[in-house]
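Suppose you are handed only two things: the residues of a chain and a line of SMILES describing zinc ion. What would the bound structure be? This form records exactly that question and the answer produced for it, so the two can be stored side by side and reused later without any lookup.

QUESTION INPUTS
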Amino acid sequence: MKFLLLIPDGMADWRIEKLGNRTPLEVAEKPNMDFIAKEGSCGSALTVPKGFEPGSDVANLTILGVDVRKHYTGRGPIEALANGIKAKLVFRCNLVKVSDVMLDYAGGRISDAEAKKVIDYLNANKKYEFVRFYSGKSYRNLLAVDRDFEPVKTYAPHDILGKKIAEFMPEGGELAKILRDLMEWSKIVLPSVSEKVNMIWPWGGGKIPEFPKFREKYGLRGAVISEVDLLKGIANGLGMDFVEVEGLTGYVDTNYKGLVRQTLKSLEKFDFVVLHTEGIDEISHEGNLEGKIEAIEIYDEKIVGKILDKADLSELKIMLLPDHPTPIALRTHVAESVPFAIYGYERDDVKTFSEFSCAKGRFGSIDGLRLMDYFLRRG
Ligand SMILES: [Zn+2]
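ANSWER OUTPUT
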């Protein structure tokens, strides 16, 4: 038996008046996701434990059975795992566009090449020898600090869109002061390096974590396919393979064919495959309602539909769920339940895949940390 975990990042949403009080998932044409819900069993899972920020890191770790209350140290450290970076502390470092407010947490979707130019510039001209910048994908880069400091309170830039940045600068102790200094400095120098971005925004810092290994815990050889470094870091931390796919954009125009091809190939080689896609979340952050509905339909057709067509369903269990909701109305993540459907065991009465239909399924409302037990039928 093989296991496929499908995670469309940020797909869940709220009821929207403009849609006749329905959610984007309820409005979208998505026969393939509905098939999984109809032929399988459904429920509603809380993937972000109380007291945690509803980030994709926390949510995806929880889905994969990692108790973040014991193991989570921050977004930056997980992305450092993705790149084999070793340092005392690692922060995510967004390249952003600001005025006196946060204009764009995603730096105009700066290209990898231009982002690298910015990072190279920062490294060549940086003000502290124990600080080093690392390039990642587009606006998602890292800032590593190779010296011990007390914890710093930072703010995720996607949570402060349109808000005064002065109120959300790093706080607490020596390192906060250093980060603020680097940020102010970047605001002065970056306009001469790039038109798209004019500031660095470090957040989600911490020590590099030790996760329990997936294969030891579940006895399955696992692989992860994703468009973002975050999931590569999770894969590396859990000792799972990360499968590269060419031509990924992390957006709705991504290489769907390549993602499906590598997923099917990986299912031959591994027992457990995660396919995490980013586009629906990004479009939710943009507050683009029409775009979100369309992105859900494209995901249904080009990912779920193609996999259902081509995979051997008699030998496959599938679990489908967004990691967290990204309500269009808020343009950011919330720590609320997501719908899930598990295909390959028995059926319940749920006929469609949505926030409210799945909540009536046989699993009811569960703690996200139990998802793997339901999916693998253990415990
Ligand atoms: Zn997001």
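WHAT STANDS OUT: The chain has two domains: 2-72+210-376, 78-206. Residues 10, 56, 281, 285, 326, 333 surround zinc ion (CB under 6 Å).
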